[in-house]
Design a protein that fits this description.
With about 170 residues, this protein is mostly helical. It has two domains: about 120 residues, no CATH class; about 30 residues, no CATH class. It has six helices and two strands, in the order H-H-H-H-E-E-H-H.
Length: about 170
Amino acid sequence: MTDHTPSVAPDGDPAPVGPISNSGALLRSLAETVTVDGTDQLATREKAVPWLRAAGLLPDDAVLSGSEHGALLRLRDALRDTMAVRASFQPDPDAVARLTRALADGRLVVTVQPDGKSALASSARAPYSNAVAAIAIAVANAWLPARLGNRGPGPRAGMSAPRSCFYAWVCERA
């Protein structure tokens, strides 16, 4: 298993100049690989590989196959669509289903450490799957309501959280 917590670049920089550890910055950076003028920083494998390496998502000796490159573009597009859905507060089951399918390539598992804390890790050995795992972990860190533990005790006042989030919050404290 590979423990893949994304590593950090300047916040909001669409062209990473170093590994990205801030989950929100990683997601924004990936989503912004297509610019307003239509420039696509991931358009070809030859462009995508250096971008992934600069973001800390792909080892220096790794390459992308044609099918992995296609999957990366689908992942990026599904991420962009889901971010738009989240910003509009309008449900779009198709967008979130496409992102869920794309993130499945990360093959995430939950590991339990000797001190009882849990972590997400990729059970895959392939570099592309590990990159997807890092993106999936970034999505979980950035969007999962159970991460409220970092913002104070318990769910925020007036916030309705699903039961699973409550259990995650309680277990995080145990």
